TrEMBL record:
Species of the source: Azorhizobium oxalatiphilum
Domain L,D-TPase catalytic: 98-234
Highest rank taxon of the organism: Bacteria
Name the UniProt record assigns to this protein: L,D-transpeptidase
Pathway(s) annotated for this protein in UniProt: Cell wall biogenesis; peptidoglycan biosynthesis
Single GO biological process annotation from the record: regulation of cell shape
UniProt keyword list: Cell shape, Cell wall biogenesis/degradation, Glycosyltransferase, Hydrolase, Peptidoglycan synthesis, Transferase
Family annotation (Gene3D superfamilies): L,D-transpeptidase catalytic domain-like (2.40.440.10)
InterPro entries given in the database record: LD-transpeptidase (IPR050979), LD_TPept_cat_dom (IPR005490), TAT_signal (IPR006311), TAT_signal_bac_arc (IPR019546), Transpep_catalytic_dom (IPR038063)
Region annotation (Disordered) ranges: 1-21
NCBIfam families assigned to the protein according to its UniProt record, in alphabetical order: TAT_signal_seq
């Protein structure tokens, strides 16, 4: 299903925006709320798991990443519902291994694995009125990418105009450490899957459609995802 451009124009996220600390009156959460959306659908079904990662395990998995260009601090996992911690789950789908499936209704992103399994990540997704669905693919990838607010966002939030020429990569950049840019038919949709440094946003609809994973999860997904990977975003 091709994206409804009327919806896209309402909350474009040229280079997404996660939530977090404030910078000179313009918060990362407000950037998030002015980003962009999720895609595609097929008849797919995922089975959850009844056991979640313990808090102690989560503190290790989501601990600091000092080797990054901009060292990433540990995520405060006490602010995340354990059901959104990374997990390997049974998942029935006809999609090939490596496909990314976004389930905005349940705030999950799945990477299809072998033997009827998937790696499941907790996510933040588009808020009401900014959700979308359809099929896409990863057209390009970025590490510590420059974020440029789209003109629609600047119109709604004039304070974003300071970054009209692009916000350099870094811990305050809304795109975070890694970004997967979603394309359809050779064109960038303005939507991304990105790294969020805001644990409290996971499991909620706070963006204008882009999909955010905790930085540690996003780095893992990014490393496993080549350009041209199929992305399916289910209807909310």
């Amino acid at each position: 299903m091709i994206i409804d451009r009327r919806t896209a124009a309402a909350g474009t996220c040229n280079e997404t925006a996660p939530a977090g600390r404030r910078e000179q009156g313009l918060s990362r959460r407000s950037f998030l709320a002015a980003s962009a959306a999720s895609l595609g659908a097929l008849g797919l079904a995922g089975c959850g798991t009844t056991e979640y990662m313990s808090l102690a395990e989560a503190q290790k998995v989501y601990g600091p990443v000092p080797t990054e260009k901009f060292p990433i601090p540990a995520a405060d996992v006490s602010k995340v519902n354990p059901k959104y911690f990374r997990a390997t789950v049974a998942y029935e789908t006809k999609e090939p291994v490596g496909t990314i499936i976004v389930d905005p209704s349940n705030y999950y992103v799945y990477r299809v694995e072998e033997d009827g399994k998937a790696t499941r990540y907790g996510a933040n997704v588009g808020r009401d009125g900014f959700r979308w669905h359809g099929d896409a693919y990863v057209g390009r990838k970025g590490e510590w990418a420059v974020w440029t607010p789209p003109k629609e966002m600047i119109k709604r939030q004039p304070e974003a105009a300071k970054w009209a020429g692009g916000m350099p990569g870094g811990l305050e950049n809304p795109l975070g450490a890694r970004t997967l840019y979603l394309y359809q038919n050779g064109q960038y949709t303005l939507y991304t899957i990105y790294a969020s440094s805001d644990p409290e946003s996971i499991g909620s609809g706070v963006t204008s459609g882009c999909v955010g994973l905790l930085s540690q999860d996003m780095i893992e997904l990014y490393d496993k995802t080549p350009v041209k990977t199929k992305v399916v975003v289910l209807p909310a």
